[in-house]
Amino acid sequence: MKRIYAREEYCVGCRLCEIFCVVGHSKSKDIIKTYKKEPDRPAPRVAVWEDGPLSFAFQCRHCDQPSCVEACITGALSKNEEGTVLCNEDKCVGCWTCITVCPFGAIQREEGEKKKIVKCNLCSGEPEPYCVSHCPNRAIVYEERGVE
Amino acid sequence: MKYVIIGNSAASVGAVEGIRKVDPEGIITVISEESYPAYSRPLISYYLAGKVKEEDMYIRDPDFYENNRVELLLDKKVSRIEPEQNTVKLEEGQSIEYDRLLLASGSSPFLPPIKGIEKQEYHFFNYFDDIKEIQQKIQLNQVTRPLIIGAGLVGMKAAEAISLLGLPVTVIELGPHILGSILSDVPARMVQRKMEEHGVRFIFEKTVKEITWGEELQGVVLSDGQGVLTDLLIVAAGVRPRIELVEELPLSKNQGVKVNEYMQTDLENIYAAGDVAEGWDLLQEENRVIPIWPGAYRQGHVAGMNMAGLKTKDSGGFAVNSIGFFGFSIITAGVFEAREGNEEILCREEPDSYLQLVFRDNRLLGFIKLGEVGQAGIFTWLIKEGIDCNSFKEKILRPGFCLLDLPEELRRDRMRGGETIESPGCA
Amino acid sequence: MGFSMLAPEYRVDRDKDRCIDCKVCVTQCPYDVHYFDEEEEKVFAREENCVNCHRCVVLCPTRALIIRKYPLEFRENSAWKDIDIRQLQKQAETGGILLSGMGNPKPLPVFWDKILLNASQVTNPSIDPLREPMELKTFLGRKPERLEIGCDGSLKTKISPQLELSAPVMFSAMSFGSISLNACRVLAEAAEQLGIYYNTGEGGLHQSLFKFADHTVVQVASGRFGVNSEYLKIGAGIEIKIGQGAKPGIGGHLPGEKVREEVAATRMIPLGTDAISPAPHHDIYSIEDLRQLIFALKEASDYEKPVSVKIAAVHNVAAIASGIARAGADIITIDGFRGGTGAAPTRIRDNVGIPIEFAISAVDNRLKEEGIRNQVSVVAAGSIRNSADIVKAVALGADAVYIGTAALLAMGCHLCRKCYMGKCSWGIATQQPHLVKRLNPEIGRERLVNLITGWKHEIKEILGGMGINAIDSLRGNRHMLRGVDLSSRELDILGIKAAGE
Ligand SMILES: Cc1cc2nc3c(=O)[nH]c(=O)nc-3n(C[C@H](O)[C@H](O)[C@H](O)COP(=O)(O)OP(=O)(O)OC[C@H]3O[C@@H](n4cnc5c(N)ncnc54)[C@H](O)[C@@H]3O)c2cc1C
Ligand code: SF4
Ligand code: SF4
Ligand code: SF4
Ligand code: SF4
Fold this sequence. Notes:
heterotrimer; B: alpha/beta; FAD/NAD(P)-binding domain; Enolase-like, domain 1; 3 domains; five-stranded antiparallel β-sheet; 10 helices; globular; C: alpha/beta; Alpha-Beta Plaits; TIM Barrel; 2 domains; three-stranded mixed β-sheet; 21 strands; binds flavin-adenine dinucleotide; binds iron/sulfur cluster
């Protein structure tokens, strides 16, 4: 399946991917409104990890055999027919069992009061995920690589 | 092909999904003595605390059984397995034939020997119905001083839920501290303090000797003679695999039913999975019951695929737990004590968080992570894969430890990940 | 640093209705302008540090930023212009030589803009390049006096080694060290894809770029950095650098902090040492010495590569060019006074040298007069900005041009001219790993290839308009040029007529 891959050698640590992930999953999908008028906007599903010059954006791998789905105690997580691993946020109770087993550390949490996870949904419905299309340096790509 | 599954919880759902991956045709019958579609056992405490509504207790959509063409028999208890005839017999007499049978009967609460208990009212904290009874009692204002026997995972979840309902909970524990199966002393005290801040009271190193439930005086007598008053007694003294159905059958069992890597018992067409089974423990390198939800699902899933004819090995697992009390998170996996000389413990302790790592020959064997969640799964992965952590051991202690901290080669390999089979055996 | 009397040069205007305090500007500014105040939970700017590189402006996702000239009025004075006062103040504060990056920005006339091109009407029909073949292919190197053809039609004359260009344009010398490896890679990949050449500059050739050697001109400069026999043999051509348009008569200095591992290895110098190119080649004090070096290099490369000599356009450029041709060079590169640089003393950059337009015609005239024009190709460099400039340069007598600044602009440079600070926010003129990453060679290459591809179309269009179907037919064809706003003396030197003549 098509997945998002990071290219650490070109990531400039700008975090535009995080910002646009939030915009893409907001109510208005307008960057200024999202940040100025939606205090309950979602947390980014992609995280930029950074240490000195090394940085890259990372999000769910949509594993062929997702540990998180197996582990989820509520059935909130599932893998759909296209292979996308999705979270039904209404069901999630924030027990962090999935976080405890995700072998990539790819699951994020909502900030503040909301005790729920947020995870990449490949921007279901969009031709290209928001983080990918808004990266200024092609440091994340969305492509089919197959098993290496 | 006729598949019969005894039990309708994590392992059972895993098996249905495993079977249907391979065999869209065969007839699947799921039998449960409970009266609900598969619900989340770990959620019963959330339900009691009012955090989850009844419709959100169910781990699959209402059309799950229909879509997977499963005949679901609720409120039916299996009383016997008859391997010679390949049938299971229900309590009410009906016999059901199988070609492949899965024992997914889980575990049942253990009742410690307490004098007078048979005459008294007490509750377990295991099944949905247990919780509904407790809930009803509380709603009728019949409870003012709840008492819980056992400060293990179940007892503590019960304590949290009841405390969240505004009642002053007392917990009696035989051991020296809470959560003895997953925490060592220091972190256990930290969690205990958090719980005490929310009004939970603990009594350690005592058992309940006797129950006195008179007209006037309701309460228990502890091993030191001390009396504790209560009007709601919850027994959470551990669980035992429900092997009663195979007790008589010629297959090996200790605590639970022994299974091979295909989740098969000694009887070729009888499989077992979940809390009832002794699967492979990757860390202890022996067959053992690891009573956790993710493991039950995984084993059920592997069993299902094997039952349908697709040979699939179970990778084995180890204990992994994620719980939280009053918003304070506790994540643990593997072992938490160093035993042999080549084992080493690294710790980072802060007022509101704690991290402990156990290594053997530079390989992570287990961890305890309190008060912070982070990317805990990477620890679990390090344990499971037996990665040599020598070159980045100190970094693992860092609060934000993530893929970034791995050596370059390992990191690049990980970043490509996902398409390679991520073996599901983290549980 | 204590109190500074310098006023900020730029002002950072942040539209608070748009800014979402996302901190992109904070992470992206290498000059420490933007910062996030934890207490106020807002982004602010230290304007005095701003160099107007546009990184934040381009990356700000809400278009909240405008960088303006700091609105600071000096009392009007035609002798003391703002820039003169500011430069003086800066020097008074530092006591050093003023340094600058890129080319001369002074408002001296740009002669390209005073030269106009011809087009056919009625008598000599124009050509539509979309329907008819149009040749831009250019060969650089010594051309034979005459051709001998055998009875069977085969060519008997031995042709000297040539560089074959798909269009009369190359990427000029920019060393690894002054620019990043990613930037070098962009030049190399684009040159390969376009069928042209780039020039290593004096920094040697990094191992990872060996695979583009067929599209590489390797340079030998006064510091001899990175020069060994493999280097000389691997390139498609060799260039001896005598001078550079931005700083004629001056050597080069790459500060030690830019000499990181890869640069040190490529230049073959110790890690962290200053790389100093002397002003002259210490073995060249005459045309005869130059001849020796030219032939030493030819010898070292088995006479298989054309050798070029690069000089700055200075007053007696024509005589020097003649000497270079006679010394045995195959190509002469002339770099005009607007040529770019990584770092040059400001006063030299802004006051030394002559415009490239005059140098081309002077050299072309002189070589023709002496009957040796065929012995060398002439490559013009310094301030070629677009396809029309190329057409004009060729019509004035150049065989091809080098572009430097234009290539960098295509990659992302915004001409802030702070190259010498080594913190290029676009990842071009820097060696700092976190900045180098900012230039993704893949994107840089695409952009550069786009630029030259566009130019090729334009050149064909212009040639077609003139009724010419090969760039060769335009070379030195000054009838196609007319001057406006030029004195008759200037017209004479350029060898072109005034508009209307
Ligand atoms: C309160 C509580 C909280 C928990 N929290 C967590 C947690 O946070 N994380 C975690 O990993 N684990 C947790 N666990 C453990 C987890 O619930 C078990 O590991 C998991 O439920 C095991 O699944 P299973 O399918 O093996 O069996 P079970 O869930 O035990 O289900 C077995 C089913 O089989 C039925 N059955 C048994 N015998 C018969 C018969 N003869 N005829 C018909 N039906 C029969 C039973 O009634 C039951 O419905 C918790 C357990 C409890 C009790
Ligand atoms: S947008 Fe691209 S360059 Fe910026 S942080 Fe994300 S991955 Fe890196
Ligand atoms: S959340 Fe983790 S385990 Fe689940 S699919 Fe994504 S990467 Fe895999
Ligand atoms: S945190 Fe949410 S999604 Fe993750 S296991 Fe718990 S309920 Fe499932
Ligand atoms: S990048 Fe733009 S929106 Fe973001 S903090 Fe800077 S000015 Fe504000």
